[in-house]
Amino acid sequence: MGWCDDSKSTNYNREINFPFKYGAEKLYRKDKIYDLFINIKYNFWPVVKKKGSAIFLHLTDSKHKPTEGCVAISKKNFMKILPLINKNTKISIN
Known about the structure:
Structural class: mainly beta
Strand content: 15-25%
Number of strands: 6
Oligomer: single chain
Shape: globular
Largest sheet: 3 strands, antiparallel
Distance between the termini: 29 Å
Number of helices: 1
Radius of gyration: 14 Å
């Protein structure tokens, strides 16, 4: 499973399955940062190509390295906020 981040694809900013001939981010990773994630749904409907894709709230790695556009937090903090999030929750990045 992955997420298409290649604006040449008709599946841009959508979940995809591998093998996939366009660029896509793998959601199964050894570093486990996507073991828990929430799709922030940025540029989700309608999708505008080259506006940005695959923006998630996900787990940080052990070194707390910067992400490439996502929001990453510790598993401890993720578990604290998870019960507060429902289908009506809006995540705003300013």
